[in-house]
């Protein structure tokens, strides 16, 4: 990775929640980098901390119960953690936009889709009057493949896939430099997923937008991303280029994820899931967080913090036995 071209840099981010007098250790020292105009796929199971990282960058975590304990989120050379709330209001939707996971709940049911997009545009460009903002909103709808005349319709008149297109139009309306896409295709069927991902990729390339794509779907990563970071129990366990992760997975968790995928060229009666369950985030195990589920774990894994090591140039892994594993 070219450090001179890094646009997003998250450094040692720690986020905790308080729930029923318990501390939930959601994000535990996460660091990641994203180059200008590139896409970084953040992959992990539900509850691994992916959405918390994105909301931390945008500073929209509810406080309480969430608390950013430490860390930096540097976007275009500026640390979002040092910004005032007033400054963040100008940044959100302008420099940084987010596509939320569920399009069904992301839209206001009593406003037309055109009004909702125009509201975002006018908020960040005070020089526009209402008519001009609405005209730009219609251009944004056309950009995502929805006819402008549908701008006067309400969200209930759109299918799930069309609603997601509206949400994407809203996110891209102000030409953001960074797009945070939180599982943007989870609620959609496979055919619509492919269309939405292709459209996001095309729009991103046209505007040279950097994108952090949050997903649990390795197929989506293969189709869309340049680089990949694998997260488990609030820690990045492996990161590198897409080719590094897919062709040479190094961490036992990443190896387990690929082993669990069905193979089209093999007949089998059962899939091969990773044994055990993800740990309770309020009672994380000592040492390597994955060791209770890892067949390669040794004594050191159960009691010591395992650092990230460079397996090959630009390819990092958090495993003390990484050089011994068959890959």
The percentage of residues in β strands lies in 15-25%
- Helix run count: 11
Structural classification: alpha/beta
Number of β-strand runs: 12
Low-confidence stretches: none
How widely separated are the two ends? 23 Å
Mean pLDDT: 90
Main sheet summary: 8 strands, mixed
Give the topology string: H per helix, E per strand. EEEHEEHEHHHHEHEHEEHHHEE
Order of adjacent strands in the largest pleated sheet: 6-7-8-3-9-10-12-11
**What is the share of helical residues?**
25-40%
Rg measurement, Å: 21 Å
Shape designation: globular
SSE blueprint:
Layout: E1 6-19, E2 22-35, E3 39-43, H1 50-58, E4 66-75, E5 78-79, H2 85-91, E6 96-99, H3 103-106, H4 113-124, H5 130-143, H6 160-172, E7 178-182, H7 190-207, E8 210-215, H8 218-224, E9 227-232, E10 235-241, H9 242-247, H10 252-259, H11 299-303, E11 309-312, E12 315-317
Tags for this model:
327 residues; alpha/beta; eight-stranded mixed sheet; 11 helices; 31% helix
Structural write-up:
The protein is an alpha/beta fold and 327 residues long. Helix content is 31%, strand content 24%. It is built from 11 helices and 12 strands. The protein has helices at 50-58, 85-91, 103-106, 113-124, 130-143, 160-172, 190-207, 218-224, 242-247, 252-259, 299-303, and strands at residues 6-19, 22-35, 39-43, 66-75, 78-79, 96-99, 178-182, 210-215, 227-232, 235-241, 309-312, 315-317. The strands form 2 sheets. An 8-stranded mixed β-sheet has the order 6-7-8-3-9-10-12-11, with helices on both faces. Strands 2-1-4-5 form a 4-stranded antiparallel β-sheet, covered by helices on one side. α5 crosses α6 (160-172) and α6 packs parallel to α7. The longest helix is centred in the middle third of the chain and has 18 residues, at 190-207. The two termini are 23 Å apart. The model has no long low-confidence stretch (mean pLDDT 90).
